[in-house]
Every structure is written in structure tokens, then in C-alpha cells.
Amino acid sequence: MKRSILIFPQFENRALLTQIRERYDPLACLIPPHVTLVFPFVSELSTDEIMRHLQQCLSTARPFSLVLQGITGSAGNYLFLNVKRGLDALIDIHDRLYTGTLKQHLNRDYSYVPHVTVGKLLSNEEFLKALEETKDFNERFEMTVEEIAVEVIGDDQSSRIET
After folding, report:
1. Has residue 141 got a pLDDT over 80?
2. 145, 87 Cβ separation under 8 angstroms
3. What strand order describes the sheet that includes 115-120?
4. d(Cα 117, Cα 72) in Å, to the nearest integer?
5. Can you give the pLDDT at residue 110?
6. Can you give the three-state secondary structure of the chain, one letter per residue?
7. How many Cβ atoms sit within 10 Å of the Cβ of residue 131?
8. How far is CA 21 from CA 74, 88, 95, 130, 157, in A?
9. What pLDDT, on the 0 to 100 scale, is given for residue 160?
10. Spatial contact of 93 and 37, defined as CB atoms under 8 Å apart
11. Rounded CA separation 94/37 (Å)
């Protein structure tokens, strides 16, 4: 089974984020806006085993403020909505989750940079155009993070919340 562990932000101004994603992100209709904590991994772990791992890793975690603002580009023609507050908490949770039963799934080739993906463009030309079109998008997205979800990723890249 292919899964990931995420935060699904519930912003009051979520419709603005949805508009951006519908324009630039081919996965917008398959998965809601999210901050990935554990990247997609294939495992035979049961739902109960995953839940026990989450409970162990997050037993001392507390709700925290999350603020995202500003769109920038990243390698691979991605557009990211950047974290302005809550970065340390996200990194701490990410690091905790990649211990124990999930440690083997950590890919150390990449640094963890928390964000919400708002676009994935097919060509460099489209990517540069999208960067230009979003350069003045400075809407601020705020919430308190209280829940973390485990998703099952379908063969078509669709998302089904497991817990």
C-alpha cells in the first residue's frame, strides 16, 4: 500500500488557494491542499501499526500556528506556497515521524522544505510564466494545526484519508 502523512490545512480563505491550484496543479482535483510530513512510501504496515507509530512520535506534540504566504518556484517546475510561521514545528514533526518503523523510508538526498504545492508545470516556459503570474500573490493563509492525517494514494494518484 502506498501512503503518506500530511496536514490538510483548513484556511478560511481556502477558495483563493483552490483557484491557484486549479490553474497550475494537475493534482488539484485528486488531493486537497496539504503539507507533506512523510513523503509517499510503500509499506505493508497495517493501519493500527501506523497509528501506534504516530501516537508514539507525537505524544508530546501540541497544536501550533501555521502561516503560509508567497509563491516561489522549485526544481522540477513546482510552485510552492511558503511557510512563514510554524516551520520549526513542521520540521520537528517530520523528523520524529521518520524514526522507528518509518526510518527506512527517509530519503536523505533531499532537504525537507515544508510547503504547500500549488503548481507543477510541464515545461520551463509554462513554469516561468506561472512564476510571473503569481509574483504579486501575497494572500496570507493562517490556521492552528491540530490534526495529522494518513492518506492512501491510489494508482491514479487520488487521495483517500485513512486516519
Report:
1. yes
2. no
3. 115-120, 78-85, 64-74, 140-145
4. 10
5. 84
6. CEEEEEECCCCCCHHHHHHHHHHHCCCCCCCCCCEEEEEEEECCCCHHHHHHHHHHHCCCCCCEEEEEEEEEEECCCEEEEEEEECHHHHHHHHHHHCCHHHHHHCCCCCCCCCEEEEEECCCHHHHHHHHHHHCCCCCEEEEEECCCEEEEECCCCCEEECC
7. 16
8. 15, 25, 28, 11, 16
9. 86
10. yes
11. 5
pLDDT in tens, 65-120: 999 999 999 999 999 999 999 999 999 999 999 999 999 999 888 889 999 999 99
Global model pTM greater than 0.85: yes
Per-residue pLDDT, 159: 83
What is the C-alpha to C-alpha distance for residues 144 and 16, in angstroms, rounded to an integer?
A: 18
**Average pLDDT value for residue range 14-20:** 94
CB 1 within 8 A of CB 150: no
The whole-number pLDDT of residue 53 equals 96
What residue type is 161 in one-letter code?
I
Which of 29, 110, 32 lies closest to 76, judged by CA? Answer: 110
Q: Which three cell numbers stand for residue 98?
A: 521518520
pLDDT tens-digit profile of 28-55? 998 899 999 999 999 999 999 999 999 9
d(CA 70, CA 118) in angstroms, rounded, equals 11
